[in-house]
Design goal:
Helix content is 9%, strand content 34%. By secondary structure, the chain is mainly beta.
């Protein structure tokens, strides 16, 4: 984490040390002393209550840049007395519990086709962890989706790449395959895990679930109807059942059909304390370099945060809209995003100038990235990617 502590200013230091700044939300109000980060990573403090949403960070009546308060000259002179070191600690303080945020849950919802148009969700796991994988179709009706539009009999198949280079080939992980959750030998463990996850989604005989211990590495969860022909709206989800373990997801991506009638939704949950720097982007034209047919011409993305958790949808609680983007080249971080698009994983194509991207600093919570189509003529195969680039 790169949070600036301004030691020469005792008052500011005490405030910063008491809380972690969050990304500035133009639709929110703030109390005096609140800390926020703008899109470029500059920290601001509210000098009084900000009761009017949309009050710009440049309004010095309400906001003050902590970065601007940092000294620009080096102090001169030397102390006239030697410091008392008798109380200096002999070991480094343990800060691991104060900056331990990570991505612990990822999911993708959208139109699931057949054959080349099946839902393919990839994820990168940093360490061995117990992973709960599922494909949901019929029970999405609980969220207001028409039953006739849903994938009726989903199945999941799990694969692991030989390396982070996705062109190096992959192999099947049968322990992660399923087409009827009730056939699992560890059904009681699955029920326990399912009821501890948010949101709790009811099961039916057609739902596909697996619960297995996975080593670190790059995986894909592939979802389609069991008959290999039928299509419909569904979700692919992977969750860490133990969020206190060292395992985390640092990448999630999904490929599939996107239309004006059904966007692709990529959700993720950040747990712990602190913030993560997240690179979000969408692909359409650049998928052609990987041989994907019928790609979307001009995708765009929008990011939302649930006020509580994904159950807000059932309760009618609106999500908070964060930034949107149509072409990554219009963003102040475009140079970094272009570098990330090719350097994070070998042999990946560079972002096309018509493809969207953003770099966001996000705190704990539930987020959704929407990959959107502008018109029916623009519909097609597209890809959405989310990477934790905090340490990059």
């Amino acid at each position: 984490m790169k949070i600036k502590f301004l030691l020469p200013f005792l008052l500011i230091f005490n405030i910063v040390n008491a809380q972690v700044p969050s990304s500035w939300d133009s639709t929110a109000t703030y109390t005096s002393g609140a800390l926020v980060l703008d899109a470029s990573g500059v920290t601001y403090i509210a000098q009084q209550d900000v009761s009017t949403p949309g009050t710009a960070l440049t309004d010095t009546t309400y906001w003050k840049s902590l970065d601007a308060a940092a000294p620009t000259t080096t102090p001169t002179g030397a102390p006239t007395t030697q410091p008392d070191v008798s109380t200096v600690p002999t070991s480094t303080p343990d800060t691991s519990t104060t900056q331990n945020a990570k991505i612990a849950s990822v999911n993708v919802r959208g139109e699931i086709g057949a054959v080349d148009d099946k839902r393919i969700m990839a994820f990168l796991l940093t360490d061995t962890g117990s992973v709960f994988s599922r494909a949901i179709g019929p029970t999405l009706a609980e969220y207001g989706l028409p039953s006739a539009s849903l994938l009726q009999n989903p199945q999941i198949r799990l694969f692991k790449y030989n390396a982070v280079d996705i062109f190096s080939g992959s192999y099947s992980v049968p322990a992660g395959d399923n087409n009827d959750y009730s056939t699992n030998s560890n059904l009681s463990d699955i029920e326990t895990a399912r009821n501890n996850l948010i949101p709790v989604v009811n099961t039916n005989s057609a739902q596909a679930i697996s619960l297995t211990s996975l080593d670190s590495g790059f995986y894909t969860l592939q979802v389609e109807d069991e008959d290999g022909v039928s299509t419909g709206i569904g979700t692919a989800t992977v969750d860490l059942t133990d969020t206190t373990s060292s395992a985390a997801f640092t990448h999630v991506s999904a490929r599939g059909l996107v239309s004006t009638g059904e966007y692709m939704f990529g959700g993720f949950q950040i747990v712990g304390t602190g913030t993560r720097k997240v690179f979000v982007r969408g692909r359409g034209p650049s998928l052609g370099a990987a041989g994907v047919p019928n790609t979307m011409v001009d995708p765009q993305i929008a990011v939302f945060k649930y006020q509580n958790d994904p159950n807000d949808d059932l309760l009618g609680i609106p999500s908070i809209q964060l930034p949107t983007n149509d072409d990554y080249t219009t963003d102040a971080n475009s140079s970094s995003m272009l570098t990330y698009s090719t350097s994070l994983y070998p042999n990946w194509p560079a972002l096309d100038s018509t493809e969207p991207g953003m770099i966001l600093t996000l705190g704990p919570g539930y987020y959704t990235v929407q990959l959107q189509s502008k018109s029916a003529a623009n519909d097609g195969n597209a890809w959405i990617g989310v990477d934790d680039v905090t340490d990059r």
